Description:
Layout (H helix, E strand, L loop, with lengths): L1 H10 L3 H9 L1 H7 L8 H13 L3 E6 L7 H20 L4 E5 L10 H17 L4 E3 L7 H14 L4 E6 L5 H10 L3 E5 L14 H16 L5 E4 L3 H14 L6 E6 L4 H9 L4 E7 L4 H10 L2 H12 L1
Parallel strand pairs: 1-2, 1-8, 2-3, 3-4, 4-5, 5-6, 6-7, 7-8
Bound molecules: flavin-adenine dinucleotide.
Amino acid sequence: xxxxxxxxxxxxxxxxxxxxxxxxxxxxxxxxxxxxxxxxxxxxxxxxxxxxxxxxxxxxxxxxxxxxxxxxxxxxxxxxxxxxxxxxxxxxxxxxxxxxxxxxxxxxxxxxxxxxxxxxxxxxxxxxxxxxxxxxxxxxxxxxxxxxxxxxxxxxxxxxxxxxxxxxxxxxxxxxxxxxxxxxxxxxxxxxxxxxxxxxxxxxxxxxxxxxxxxxxxxxxxxxxxxxxxxxxxxxxxxxxxxxxxxxxxxxxxxxxxxxxxxxxxxxxxxxxxxxxxxxxxxxxxxxxxxxxxxxxxxxxxxxxx
Length: 306
Ligand SMILES: Cc1cc2nc3c(=O)[nH]c(=O)nc-3n(C[C@H](O)[C@H](O)[C@H](O)COP(=O)(O)OP(=O)(O)OC[C@H]3O[C@@H](n4cnc5c(N)ncnc54)[C@H](O)[C@@H]3O)c2cc1C
């Protein structure tokens, strides 16, 4: 399984395969299980659909590793349209963005000024910007930028911590101390054992400890996982300690464990679905296959059926 995971993660940065897949209609059809569509309108409609089921959304315009200023600004324009449309349509939604998508590799100051524009727009619209976490070369820079943005627009920006990283418990305390909202996930990139737990059981244990810490920290955090054992652990904790369900939310990915998303919402838990969209879907899609290689069979079966 680990071999397949590594294979999909390395294929996720293969440029040849990426441009072939993104331009082919078969590729787009396969990706539609995890990607809401190619346009802003597709994403907004998907958000409205999940809202009707009592589920909130966070919208992600797919794209990463942008290396020219024009492209970075074009990515930002999409986010500004999203923030306006979320407000205009009264959606229960916010946005998630990756720093490499707004020029982090090219010029970190450019990326910060673009994200500043997004966060100040979100503040005016009563919304929120989540800065997704990428591979470990970006961890410290992402956290530090979130801190600076939070100092200027408190409560309008947050980031993501990954339970597979050994540094995360310290980062959680650091961000909670400033009142910064965290999305906790396991982590989707390939990291060396010096900085990340190589064994899944250690990642899961760290996730649980961090989750309970965040849930009782007084800062509203998102528990991003589809792991039923971990979700069950959180539910038991809520029942045993009578923690108010409004103190945190669960977060899951579009197209993954829809049954669990609906069940949690029905049981009165806050649930937010991460809705990715746009033509640059390939690296995101490959990371989803890496998490669960059985998805390949599932997708092929569905493809042949339709
Ligand atoms: C809302 C959200 C935002 C995220 N943001 C980030 C981020 O900013 N940075 C980052 O590094 N990672 C991010 N991730 C990805 C995360 O790090 C994990 O890679 C991913 O969530 C899989 O871990 P898991 O907790 O679901 O548990 P796992 O242990 O991987 O899986 C547990 C169970 O969940 C189900 N499952 C998990 N993944 C899939 C899938 N793709 N298809 C079908 N079933 C599946 C399976 O039943 C599996 O047995 C995010 C995840 C979510 C839900």
